[in-house]
């Protein structure tokens, strides 16, 4: 078996047994990237030399007796995550030549765990999108059908994992950006509870919903990565010490995966109009699987879900228009100083540096926050957000998790809807709820519709990632959709 | 919700974005469509509902107000990212 095809768990066992080295694994991934990434275009930067050096160091640490779940495991990181000394662009022209001067906290944690950074992956510019088509450096391609999008915004990360270019990848999720591409590419993706993992060193988008998380080949692997990157960080005041009572190093195998007594909520609003029949069928088959394993299936209702996209597209542009104000052509990034005054440096640098979607969102946010409109838009959206959050919390008091499709359809064709921003926003219809409420959610593959992967979303109680992992593992223990790989033509 | 070209130009100025005529036209239509969709929020009764900005119940996360030394290499590489640097300082146009 090619080493790059291993899951983290498999590689870990081989490394521990001394059958392979991290250098072997890292070379296999780099070779895979070299062989197919001209077609997938998942990577924006590959740091070959640094990766081999890090792999050698990991091998040395292991030789000296160290063990660790991610020691020597090669991974890719979404290019909106700061990596010291490595170009970090957020897929924007405005940061095309930006070299990150420090590491994000989650990158630091992975470094000290001995994981090996292979490079950086493509995304929609500043994570604004659901297809990677908004990247200033061109779209990534779905390994299952190169004419289709991999989803977004963490599309490069998802495509890379699905095509075995790495053992896992990091993404960020603000309103579906891990779950959507995981679904379109047929892999597992976990958006943790808001505040579980540090946002320090993520290029900020929507500060009140941004979270980093893993994209992996199995649910078991997602759990391994999340345990390393989670935790309180003095540099992110919103991180929560949620797992302090469970600080024991839980090995995935310890987690109970029995479904007897588990209650699963099925919200009717997520299975209605707009959902493709093929997707609905596969998600309901997965629900049936849980039922056979002893879970109780309960019909629930989330009547305000339909306002999720509307709320999200007020809150997100408002927060990101403030966050992107720092790109001013003065301190770093692209600068056009052809004008004679300060204002023209701002306007020209930003006008030429940002792509169309970033500009649209900045303007939408600026408008929503401007004098006279704040109450009608931002404040109203925050109030509806409260209703959406309470509604989800109330349902989750009665059930262990909620199951929905991740996306209403399979991956669409590149270019098919890139001229209609509103249509693209509606892509997020099933994923915004968990983001607005800060709940953990995961997408796992549940089958194929006309040869394209379909994802199921599991939404859990705040900080109850363990439940989601147990449920995801129970499903993957009895199915093999997560093991299928695309033949890349 | 139709935004006029003047309104779009005003928003772009507030947002510090230099836009071409073509862009003003295009974004005007697109933003109007999005705002039209968002109008649906007005039908939700939010009387007496508090706004949510924070979802995990944290309040006032304090830390000591202390000076932390930043690694010199990182600090210098951060400053050197600026388009114009003079003697370890970022150079800007006059603001007064």
UniProtKB/TrEMBL annotation, chain A:
Catalytic activity: L-glutamyl-tRNA(Gln) + L-glutamine + ATP + H2O = L-glutaminyl-tRNA(Gln) + L-glutamate + ADP + phosphate + H(+)
Residues forming the catalytic site: 78 (charge relay system), 153 (charge relay system), 177 (acyl-ester intermediate)
GO molecular function, one term: transferase activity
UniProt keyword annotations, A-Z: ATP-binding, Ligase, Nucleotide-binding, Protein biosynthesis, Transferase
Keyword Chaperone appears in the UniProt entry: no
GO BP terms, alphabetized: translation
Domain of life of the source: Bacteria
SUPFAM superfamilies, alphabetized: Amidase signature (AS) enzymes (SSF75304)
Top EC class, one word: ligase
Any coiled-coil regions, as ranges: none
Gene Ontology cellular component annotations, sorted alphabetically: glutamyl-tRNA(Gln) amidotransferase complex
Record-annotated Amidase domain positions: 24-468
Enzyme nomenclature, EC number: 6.3.5.7
InterPro entries per record: Amidase, Amidase_CS, Amidase_dom, AS_sf, GatA
Keyword Protein biosynthesis: yes
Summary of the function given for this chain in its UniProt record: Allows the formation of correctly charged Gln-tRNA(Gln) through the transamidation of misacylated Glu-tRNA(Gln) in organisms which lack glutaminyl-tRNA synthetase. The reaction takes place in the presence of glutamine and ATP through an activated gamma-phospho-Glu-tRNA(Gln).
Family from the record: Belongs to the amidase family. GatA subfamily.
PANTHER family xref list: GLUTAMYL-TRNA(GLN) AMIDOTRANSFERASE SUBUNIT A (PTHR11895:SF151), TRANSAMIDASE (PTHR11895)
Subunit field text: Heterotrimer of A, B and C subunits.
Protein name: Glutamyl-tRNA(Gln) amidotransferase subunit A
Species of origin: Candidatus Falkowbacteria bacterium GW2011_GWE1_38_31
Gene it is expressed from: gatA
UniProtKB/TrEMBL annotation, chain B:
Record keyword Ligase present: yes
GO MF terms held by the record: asparaginyl-tRNA synthase (glutamine-hydrolyzing) activity; ATP binding; glutaminyl-tRNA synthase (glutamine-hydrolyzing) activity; transferase activity
Keywords: ATP-binding, Ligase, Nucleotide-binding, Protein biosynthesis, Transferase
InterPro entries (alphabetical): Asp/Glu-ADT_sf_sub_c (IPR036113), GatC (IPR003837)
Any Pfam family: GatC
Quaternary structure and partners: Heterotrimer of A, B and C subunits.
Task performed by this protein: Allows the formation of correctly charged Asn-tRNA(Asn) or Gln-tRNA(Gln) through the transamidation of misacylated Asp-tRNA(Asn) or Glu-tRNA(Gln) in organisms which lack either or both of asparaginyl-tRNA or glutaminyl-tRNA synthetases. The reaction takes place in the presence of glutamine and ATP through an activated phospho-Asp-tRNA(Asn) or phospho-Glu-tRNA(Gln).
Family: Belongs to the GatC family.
Protein name: Aspartyl/glutamyl-tRNA(Asn/Gln) amidotransferase subunit C
Upper taxonomic lineage: Bacteria, Candidatus Falkowiibacteriota
Gene (name only): gatC
